[in-house]
User: Fold these one by one.
Assistant:
Number 1:
Amino acid sequence: MTDRVGIYPGTFDPVTFGHMDVIKRATKLVDKLVIAVAADTAKTPIFALEKRVKIVQEEVVLIGASAGIEIEVLGFEGLLVNFAKENEASLIIRGLRAVSDFEYEFQMSGMNSKLEPDIQTVFLPASEGTHFIASRFVKEIVRLGGSVEGLVSPNVRKELERHYF
């Protein structure tokens, strides 16, 4: 039997406890998880692609070991389905915080299925304690001098403070 590879794509600018929750739960669905850090995005990230990849790598190092699976963090450009095929993934894993997320993600999963029918999308709803966390809010809180304790790790907080101050 071949290993089931899943792709969890995102901008991760920065990676939050919401992302980490999805990552931990995704490890129960796959034998290998590839966290795909997007270079091509409509968003304007504050961190360069290489920096985002490095931060996510530091954050997930213990998760794969405790789950007993391989987690790889890679930056990517272009179509997600092409990246998924290159990494032999059969699943795309997406987190959902709200109904508005679902509408966008549902349309995206339909388009991805049209482009590559062998790759399925799996939606993981946000856990009760993380559904309100969004990277854009975290960045704004830090920029305005507020506390992001409980939203991101101390390492991510330091990176954000280094960027803004």
Note: Residues 13 and 52 are 7 Å apart (CA to CA).
Number 2:
Amino acid sequence: MHISLDGFVAGLNGELNWVKVDEEIFDYIGKRISEGDTALYGRVTYQMMENYWPAAGDKPAASKHDIEHSKWYNKVHKIVLSKTMKEAGLTNTTIINDNLSDKINEIKQQAGKDILLFGSPTATHSLIQLGLIDGYWLFVNPIILGQGIPLFVDIKAKIKLKLLTTTRQFTSGVTELNYTVDRQ
């Protein structure tokens, strides 16, 4: 998830025009997400992704990133947290609209690779509050927004983290921080 230095994941209206992305970051993220076989989204982010990624790689001017990510998006299993969406007609997609903790824990127990949460601040807030996030993969952008949608809200208890060695700095000034939740 991209985050500003002062802890915001989007502007007040959800804008992301401050996020720095380039080929170096796209290539790095592409390698990392290929390790996951499940993508988790909130409804708003899922609808935004679904409107672009299924056919993005087929466009005449598609970039290498568009082609690769479109292929991955089309094959990955998608989980959407939504109280309003219905599963009818959705391909390779599961909607979770109740019993969030039980259903996510059930999915985590199944065989498979990583479950990657993309964007979705509201869904992220719910998952954090329920203690369902096992790690934080953050891309700290060199900007202070001053206001916006924060990553962490209404935290009721400390969440201890362990920094992984995959942390790195990109030439754009973005710094990756990769933590696992220390449950000890």
Note: The CA atoms of residues 161 and 182 lie 5 Å apart.
Number 3:
Amino acid sequence: MKTTKIFFLLLLFFNLVSLYQFAQNTRWIDDIVPDTTLDDSTFKLCNANEQIIQYFNDGKGVQYKGGKPAIDSIFFSNYRTVKINESGLIRIRFVVNCSGETGRFRLLSSDINYQPKEFTSEITNQLLRISKSMNNWQPKIWKDTKVDYYQYLICKIDNGELTHILP
């Protein structure tokens, strides 16, 4: 019994240490921490990591020249359907800096039941390439200052075909 309590306390201690270390490196769940193995080294923030504005902070929606119709046009004219039985959602999340430049792209995908799923690279590489090619992102203004911000796009795939772009 005493050994079980000690083991439980050690496990709890190590979990608390891990949580503390995680909290030191992120401010919000899903912050995009820089990764030199994934990120373009030329992409620079205008402000500090902890000052990146979350997309839920201003209520202004997508800040892209031409708005949502322009985003749809870019994706639907560049994506080539992959003949494969894969369906679900692929979220592309990234940072837009105060100059409208993008970086730190990350993908998260799920099947149609919102369970984690890994799509074929024929699909994900296309969506990532298209996202990275978009160069008309507009800077956000927060309290009279241009800021860095998170942006996301969710692509709905139905049997390898791109059917919707959200938001």
Note: The longest strand covers residues 149-158.
Number 4:
Amino acid sequence: MLPADAGCIVHNVDTIFSIYLSVIEGKPLTKRICTVTGDGVKEPGNFYVWLGTNYRQLLDAAGGPVGEPEKYISGGPMMGFAMYSLDVPVVKGSSSLLVFQKDIVSKTTSSACIRCGKCGEACPEHLLPAKLAGFASRNDEEGFTKFDGMECVMCGSCSYVCPAKRPLTQQIKAMRSTVLANRRKK
């Protein structure tokens, strides 16, 4: 069951603290708690940093990298996104920096969908990720929206459970961007 279905809201500690500072003390959001972790960082930890802090400075605060990491991810392992540079600032939506010595995902090869249905079972929105990814690969906006592709929360659960290692979340995310861009043009 999703939190909304149970009549509750789930937030992390930093969000709750930020709400307190804003509502009770009248202070604007100027800092975030960011986690720096992974096998590619010397001293993993949580850091309370100013918005605008460079990710490279955040990594340095955690003792720096171990060797030459192959992959950096901003956000969590399921919904985060790969970073091509650490020369970007921490923003209000920043939560973590994952540093990996090896980029296992880029070395993984995907195969054809075996129609197992695991992606649909894992989807918290009860969507059909394999079907949506198919629409995305064919650039079929009409089919994508008809099957509620815009309702995807991009949690990554479908890609995680896929035995064929298909990049379902990435395909759906790309199609969502296309649909939104085309809507803005109208």
Note: The helical segments are 13-23, 55-61, 104-107, 118-122, 129-137, 141-146, 157-161, 168-185.
